[in-house]
Design brief:
The complex is a heterodimer of chains A (264) and B (268). Chain A is mostly beta strands. Helices cover 7% and strands 47% of the residues of chain A. Chain A contains 2 helices and 20 strands. In chain A, the strands form 5 sheets. In chain A, strands 8-1-11-12 form a 4-stranded mixed sheet, with no helix packed on it. In chain A, a hairpin with a 2-residue loop joins strand 19 and strand 20. The mean pLDDT of chain A is 91. Chain B is mostly beta strands and 268 residues long. In chain B, the strands form 4 sheets. A 5-stranded antiparallel sheet of chain B has the order 1-6-3-4-7, with no helix packed on it. Chain B has a 4-stranded antiparallel sheet with strand order 5-2-8-9, with no helix packed on it. In chain B, a hairpin with a 5-residue loop joins strand 16 and strand 17. The chains are: A mainly beta (264), B mainly beta (268). Chains A and B meet through helix 1, helix 2, strand 8, strand 10 and strand 13 of A and strand 9, strand 16, strand 17, strand 18 and helix 1 of B. Strand 8 of chain A pairs antiparallel with strand 18 of chain B.
Chain lengths: 264, 268
């Protein structure tokens, strides 16, 4: 066991959670999850990095670029949005997706207009790990969730680099959450690694203390999966085994007709 | 070290679910049975109360219905997992290192529930320095008249006292001060935001110059059927790699200077 932990320690240094970008002139974004169909709407809160950092902006207007990807990580649309700084601006993602795109969910990234990396003196990078909200279509109420990871490095020229670290072997991510039989759960799993990742989703019975079901999924780089968790007559927890470091999913919990959203 | 606060609320029932298993299998955390304690302030001391003993793999959902004696406690109630039995009384918050992971941190499910709904987030709290500051930019305000919005500011610090501090709330664009309110250390402070005349596009900035905390934002509708609970990022989260805490200091200094009331506070 001690040798095992020593090996883990060494590997932790070799395979960090977030890689350092290859280029300096980038901004970082989470790989946000969107779902827009007859049931769900997705909103993004514009992270006003210009305002937060008090960067120069004489006319009070800045801009962001949103790139939308399919569930397989393929680019489907790119949109520039101007916004007034130091304001709370929330956009409906569904209004910016390509109207010809029919799949109900995917991912998106946000790059911010900065002429160069203003945090280079700190060996740091500006990051948008902001906030997204999801709502059920029959209500105006929004469930907010903060971003998950510093996932993607974005250049002004449109190039991007996935930064989520991965290892050579599968690790276990034990969700610290108990799934109860009286509720329904839907989960979004996002792959911000630079390669396709296989996930073994193990359902562990609380009562029996052992794995009762394994779901095997593959997600392409930049892509995601949105699916309903299997239900059982007993409580369970989930262990995700994959080469992705910390593959933390988003959980949508349904109780009666209401929804709660949180990180798993 | 991860500790787990229990929220408070006038309408909803708080709950905190603590897990005796690590969030991953690759950090050096020994699997073992642990004692679950509730720690709170009584008579200028930290007091511990044994709640349960958890085998490895077990969890415990704590709420005030099961422990009504905690309802009269004014201070924050914090749950901790410890390999060893704790003393009954401490003059400073006890240091317990049995839940230390980083990818991710060891977390509990912290939430509020009504008869028909619930909301939660995965979180933990660490002991804040006695001298600290807070800057929170909150986009979570939902403008509909049927939705109530609240700030829940949770603080935990070493000294077993509830000291009075002040938070200021500003419109980030106009820098108009929307409110100046008392909050307390080692407490779960609840501040109603609907009464603050927050305009539709206003990004409220919450500042505390002498105390830090976890700023949670709760929104709920009149029927208590929809609830949303989330915390804002600390300013360090707007950067990655390098000297993030210097970046955080830079952001705070700029906003504290912009909102400084020279008649009342020293800004440096």
């Amino acid at each position: 066991m001690k040798i095992n932990m020593l090996v883990h320690k060494i590997l932790n240094r070799l395979f960090p959670l977030t890689k350092i970008p290859k280029r300096q002139d980038v901004t970082i974004s989470d790989l946000f999850f969107w779902v827009c169909d007859s049931c769900y709407s997705t909103y993004y809160v514009i992270t006003d990095l210009i305002g937060i950092f008090n960067f120069e902006c004489p006319d009070g207007i800045s801009s962001i670029n949103l790139k939308f990807f399919s569930c397989d990580g393929e680019l489907i649309n790119s949109v520039d949005i101007d916004y007034a700084i130091n304001e709370r601006i929330i956009i409906n993602i569904g209004e910016y997706l390509d109207s010809g795109y029919e799949e109900p969910y995917g991912t998106f990234v946000v790059s911010h207009r900065l002429t160069q990396n203003p945090l280079a003196i700190f060996d740091s990078y500006v990051s948008d790990r902001g906030y997204v909200a999801y709502s059920l279509s029959h209500t105006i109420f929004k469930n907010y969730i903060h971003g998950n990871l510093d996932a993607v490095a974005l250049c002004k020229n449109g190039e991007f680099q996935y930064l989520h670290g991965s290892t050579l072997y599968k690790r276990s991510y034990n969700q610290q959450y108990i799934f109860k039989p009286e509720n329904r759960y839907v989960t979004a799993l996002i792959n911000a690694c630079d390669k396709e990742i296989s996930y073994h989703i193990c359902y562990v019975s609380i009562r029996r203390g052992k794995c009762i079901f394994i779901d095997k999924k593959k997600i392409k780089s930049g892509g995601c999966l949105f699916y309903t968790l299997k239900s059982f007559s007993e409580s369970f927890r989930i262990v995700i085994k994959s080469q992705a470091i910390m593959p933390r999913p988003i959980i949508f919990k349904f109780v009666n007709q209401t929804m709660d959203v949180f990180h798993g | 070290m991860s500790y787990f606060p229990v929220l408070k609320h006038a309408i909803y029932q708080p709950f905190t679910t603590v897990y005796n298993f690590a969030p991953n299998n690759y950090e050096d955390v020994k699997a073992s049975d642990k004692y679950l304690y509730a720690i709170y302030i009584q008579g200028n001391f930290w007091k511990s109360c044994l709640i349960s003993k958890l085998s490895h793999g077990e969890f415990y959902e704590f709420d005030f219905k099961s422990f009504p004696e905690f309802l009269s406690i004014n201070s924050i109630v914090v749950l901790v997992l410890s390999r060893d039995r704790l003393e009954r009384t401490y003059t400073a918050f006890p240091v317990i290192d049995s839940c230390q992971t980083s990818k991710p941190a060891w977390r509990a499910t912290i939430g509020l529930k009504s008869n028909i709904s619930s909301c939660s987030y995965q979180g933990e709290i660490n002991v804040f320095p006695n001298k600290a500051t807070l800057l929170s930019m909150s986009p979570f305000f939902q403008d509909d008249e049927k939705i109530k919005n609240e700030l829940i500011l949770v603080n935990l610090c070493d000294k077993p006292t509830r000291d009075e501090h002040v938070i200021e709330i500003y419109d980030s664009k106009t820098l108009r001060k929307l409110a100046e309110l008392k909050v307390y250390s080692n407490s779960v402070n609840i501040i109603g935001l609907n009464e603050l005349d927050i305009a539709v596009n206003c990004m409220p900035i919450i500042i505390a110059r002498t105390m830090s905390g976890i700023p949670l934002y709760l929104s709920h509708n009149e029927e208590n059927s929809f609830m949303s609970l989330e915390h804002t990022h600390p300013p360090a989260c707007y950067s990655v790699h390098g000297e993030r805490w210097r970046v955080q200091k830079l952001i705070k200094e700029k906003w504290f200077a912009k909102t400084c009331d020279e008649n009342k506070y020293a800004c440096t």
